[in-house]
Amino acid sequence: MLPNFAYIRARSKQEALDNLASQGAYVHAGGTDLLGCARDEVFEVEKVVSISRLEELKGITHADEGGIRIGALTTISEIAASAVIRESYPGLAQAASDVASPQLRNQGTLGGNLCQRPRCWYFRGDFHCAKKGGDMCYAVEGENRYHAIFGGDPCYIVHPSDTAPMLVALGAEVRISGARGERSMALEDFFVLPDQDLERENVLQQGEIVTEVVLPAASGVKSSYRKIRERGAWDFALVSVALAVRLSGSTVAEARVVLGGVAPAPWRSAAAEAALIGKEPNPSVAAAVAAAAVAGAQPLEQNAYKVLLAKGALMESLVAL
Ligand SMILES: Cc1cc2nc3c(=O)[nH]c(=O)nc-3n(C[C@H](O)[C@H](O)[C@H](O)COP(=O)(O)OP(=O)(O)OC[C@H]3O[C@@H](n4cnc5c(N)ncnc54)[C@H](O)[C@@H]3O)c2cc1C
Fold first, then answer.
1. By alpha-carbon position, which residue is closest to atom 5 of ligand 1?
2. Does the C-beta of 104 come closer than 6 Å to ligand 1?
3. For tag attachment on the chain, is the N or C end more exposed, with fewer CB atoms within 10 Å?
């Protein structure tokens, strides 16, 4: 059952920010994740601030220098169906199409997808784990087949978003509003690992909201997203691979390789990128890139299969691209 909480449907961004300043106040965008967390008492929700009336946070528009701007309230379905995204950022259209189910994509928003909380069954369940202020990560000795193989210590959650790895691969920037004004940063720097901040998965402070994501122009960039899940549909990634590559003639001039489902944040592999840049893509280069991408993996007892999945999915994605 949902607990009692105050509910505000903000009429302006300022009203939303004013109401979000206090501890226990949460943004409600589509609510597909927030309300489940509230019902299951994953964290204490005292005030729910709906931003659904804020028209300026909706839609996909052209940005300066040929890129696009995607408002935080744009639904995942709109991203998957957008002609400009399908044409210029096909990897993002694919990532959005791979999120959850049609109903959840119609209701869920981009901001919510980036800020959703992890799905770790210890964090979501009745365990006072390290992330909730306890003194241990139960996944280390427990049921850890869906947990992190990179960047886990001291908490082995994986980041659940499908759009996040792809947006990082595409070099997205995120814009944030709060009581102290606006700020923006590379989306890659938005996410934090547990050894930086155990309680949060991103840099947002109490009262701050994501307002939009800006993508640079995609001319000459090929992108792809490959998601591997346990069930055929409506499931989070066991592993995903987001690639953005620019060729110069037949060699790779620029590359971003980002893995999802393997770490507490989208996991960009500098080693894989170094193994790809300057090369003419072929199956043996793909094998070397895939080996480089998983070289530092530290699997737990039940999730070494993710190393093989990541390697195989990355090779497939490179060959296909
Ligand atoms: C059964 C199920 C399956 C799912 N499968 C997938 C999947 O395969 N892939 C995937 O990527 N996701 C999946 N999701 C997760 C998620 O619900 C959706 O991805 C959705 O996009 C979340 O958006 P929302 O607008 O509903 O978020 P909300 O529930 O409204 O918000 C989620 C969190 O983000 C915060 N938040 C929301 N908007 C903002 C903002 N603009 N600024 C700051 N904070 C904000 C909220 O306070 C809350 O903590 C699944 C969810 C469910 C319930």
1. 100
2. yes
3. N
> Comparing 121-130, 179-188, 197-206, 230-239, which segment has the lowest mean pLDDT?
230-239
Report which secondary-structure segment, H or E, holds 114.
Answer: helix 110-115
Cβ of 209 closer than 6 Å to ligand 1, yes or no, is: yes
- Ligand 1, pocket-test mutation among 48, 116, 200, most atoms within 8 A of CB: 116
pLDDT digit string, tens, across residues 228-287: 999 887 899 999 999 999 999 999 999 999 999 999 999 999 999 999 999 998 999 999
238 within ligand 1 shell (Cβ under 6 A): no
- Global pTM reads 0.98
**CA 204 to ligand 1: nearest atom:** 43
Residue 202 Cβ contacting ligand 1 at under 6 Å? no
pLDDT in the model for residue 321: 85
The answer to whether the peptide bond before residue 102 is cis (omega within 30 degrees of 0) is: no
Residue pair 296/272 in contact (Cβ under 8 Å)? The answer is no
Using a CB cutoff of 8 Å and minimum separation of 24, what contacts does 15-18 make? 16/49, 16/51, 16/54, 16/209, 17/177, 17/178, 17/179, 17/207, 17/209, 18/179
Cβ of 236 closer than 6 Å to ligand 1, yes or no, is: yes
